[in-house]
Queue: 2 jobs
Job 1
Amino acid sequence: MQVRHGSEFLKFAALAAGIIAGASLATAQQAPPAPQQAPPAPSIPLQTYTASDTSATVGVPAGWKVTKAEYGIIQMSGPNGEAISLGNVLFVRNGAYQPGQKTSGLIAMTLPNQATITQKAEAVWKMGIAASGDPTARVSLISATPIPLGNIAQCGIFLGSQTGAKGAVNWEMRFCSMPMDTNGIFKLFWLNASLPTSVAAQERATAEAVLSSYRPSQATLMALLKPETPPLPPAGAVGPGGAPMSSTLYGEQQAQQTFNCMDEGVIREEPEWQLPPYCR
């Protein structure tokens, strides 16, 4: 499968913010991190669905419907108003945050790269509420738990609730900020599930099973996460035979490591001790 970076791919990347339309982080309180190893979730029966372009697969619960599946992005809805979106990417330029900023070509927004992962998630939610036009929408961030991938990205698991014209929902978001490239551009990547509060308690295990079942192809995930400008190898880095490492070889090495860390740490939620050392 060939992953495209032209106008069609960018169109789907820009649509990623639509999942959070109708939200605003009016209040945010960070709770203590949850234990790293939660009790195992009950087995949830899922039917494997493969995107028509083979960019990703996911498990779909009975009664749910896939509404979008292309370029690694898969979105689905449940019979009770549940919504899940996977493989979302936004391109961000390093700089001062500008409330109400409009997408400009590749760039969805401007944010300081040194901002915390929670501040970056907050900015994405604010962009969603601005796009929704719902002045009643409010979101409360209940907890933010870091994912130990400090060597390759800022990542965390966020839990929260949302109210607005469309009703009240609980949500879970696995969110990452990728490293900034030499031109000051970085990517935000996330998976998200929203459940109406009336069914949240009984549907949470199903939603988490779906999130963990998401399997983008290696080529797709590497393309979604790679920096716009290829990284330069650090001074003194050597390749096979002791020769100086080329930027091409270094980029390939970094892409493979990023894929492994994101697949195991964010999507599969493997415990920290099982992650490769280069992730942490």
Job 2
Amino acid sequence: MTAAANTNEIAAARERIDDVRREVARVYVGSSRPVDTILVALLAQGHALLEGVPGVAKTTLVKAFATALGCSARRIQFTPDLLPADITGTYVLSPRDGTFTLRAGPIFANVVLADEINRAPAKTQSALLEAMQERQVTIEGDRFELPLPFLVLATQNPIDLEGTYPLPEAQIDRFLVRVSMGYPTAREEAQMIKTHGIDPPTSRSVLDARDVVQLQAIAARVYLEDDLMDYAVAITGFTRGHPRVALGASPRASLGLVRAAKAWALIGGRTFVAPDDLRAVATSVLAHRIVMTADAEGEPKSRERLVEEALAKVSYRRGMRAI
């Protein structure tokens, strides 16, 4: 059995995490919550879906985050004519010796920015599924491992715009968290104009790929009591039996909720997961996985309110067991 992370490991890890947060804050002006939620996805070895109207710095945030990690990063601009091979790569014929060699696609990077992912049709979006779930791609029957760490940061516009396609539910379920980015406050917007008005700042690398893998290993060893596992399952189970829900959160969501809570505890500098850690990440992990009934889907933030209802009605008690 793997030993739980100790206090010294957690303290050292938190210092490294705070370095990343400070570097991103030099470029991204706004609430710290989106940055922390992306950090949760990274530490929990998941992926993040950023939603927001155009112009709220989704791409700026992702690029600053990738630079601060010091890992290889590639950007894929999704368009209606993008093909799956444009993402994964393909074999090309070498005229000199008549052999085929692999031309690796942009998916072979530690951090992949899938910009405006909902502008490509489902066939192209599905090219990411194997990579996101298995950390591998299959090209012409050959299997290739992706580098570690591997993180997909996808952006999309939440409103219906011409030339966009909804993501399939199977792909949405592969995103550990959804990051909802709203408009900045008046003070934040004024600070953004002042910061970026003349010479836009740039972030610098404060980690490397090896550091990130070590942080992920520490997050996985944050202590979690069995009672909190039952609490996580009870929260996701609430979403499956609600009368206004057509499709509740999957078992993968329960696993993601636990992993995200461990990452949130690490960000907070704790060696153990508390009930408040599960509650803090529940909306980001669960809301985007829920499909509401037809009469409830049109209501603003209906899925977020459902998760809030689950947190209000499902109580945590030591010794609780799921029925």
